[in-house]
Design brief:
The protein has 247 residues and is an alpha+beta fold. The chain contains six helices and nine strands, in the order E-E-E-E-H-E-H-H-E-E-H-E-E-H-H.
Length: 247
């Protein structure tokens, strides 16, 4: 996770966050729980509605596919049983995307939105953390590209994406569970096992602990892992919210 993170940039949303990584910039807004239409009502849970707006033009099939992945993932993260018969709305606006107009690799051209998925997941969880909605866990997500020679590249550049033999998006919960796995391209099980191991090491916290049970008075982590970066953001948020107690 990069340092290009801002919590609560939108004043009229219940929760919001902006996140920028690998040339992508996404702003997420969360509203809810709000009243839900009768046809969408779930008796024992909250309904979750995810809307993805591309940087240019209107959304199409690819956006609907990403919305479905994000909705299924966040349903595991949000404690939906806490607010039955309500709606939680997550709106994701892509502000900027890397210029891939010169891409010649058919894989990259057909799956360019796959590289956007980690930024969408990270901005979503950050926006949820800025709300008062109860969560069962947090998550971190990363993108791994496999070059034609079999080299694994974490958070690949546009050039690496263009030359990749396969692309893989994985997301892990703060409990160490694999929540999301999306892959494109040609690869074998040996490559997949390497991708899984590399992504897991990149996403988990240094002590493999549960973010929901951590001590907020610990020194901020200086690890390069996404889990530790998210942990630091949560610690800073908690310290800011409880600063009034020190006075």
């Amino acid at each position: 996770m990069t340092k290009d993170v801002t919590l609560s940039p939108l004043g009229r949303a219940d929760g919001s966050a902006s996140y920028a990584s690998n040339g992508y910039s996404v702003i997420a807004a969360v509203n809810g729980p709000v009243e839900v239409q009768r046809r969408d009502e779930i008796p024992e849970e909250s309904a979750i509605d995810v809307v993805l707006r591309p940087a240019n033009g209107v959304g199409g099939v690819r956006e609907r596919h990403l919305e479905s992945i994000i909705e299924k993932t966040l349903r595991q993260v949000i404690l939906v049983s806490a607010h039955p018969r309500t709606l939680i709305q997550i709106t994701l606006q892509v502000i900027a995307a890397p210029d891939d107009s010169n891409a010649s690799n058919p894989l990259h051209q057909s799956t360019s939105n796959l590289s956007l998925l980690p930024a969408l997941l990270q901005s979503s969880i950050l926006a949820l953390l800025s709300t008062s909605l109860p969560l069962t866990m947090t998550l971190t997500s990363t993108l791994v590209a496999v070059s034609q020679s079999g080299e694994l590249v974490l958070q690949p550049s546009v050039k690496a994406l263009q030359e990749a033999a396969s692309l893989h998006v994985l997301a892990f919960s703060s409990l160490g569970e694999l929540l999301v796995v999306e892959s494109e391209g040609a690869f074998d099980m040996a490559i997949w096992e390497q991708v899984y191991s590399r992504a897991e090491n990149h996403c988990r916290t240094s002590d493999a602990g549960n973010l929901a049970q951590m001590d907020f008075e610990m020194e901020p982590s200086r690890s390069d892992s996404l889990g530790d970066s998210l942990r630091s953001i949560i610690e800073e948020k908690a310290a800011k919210e409880h600063r009034w107690k020190e006075g």
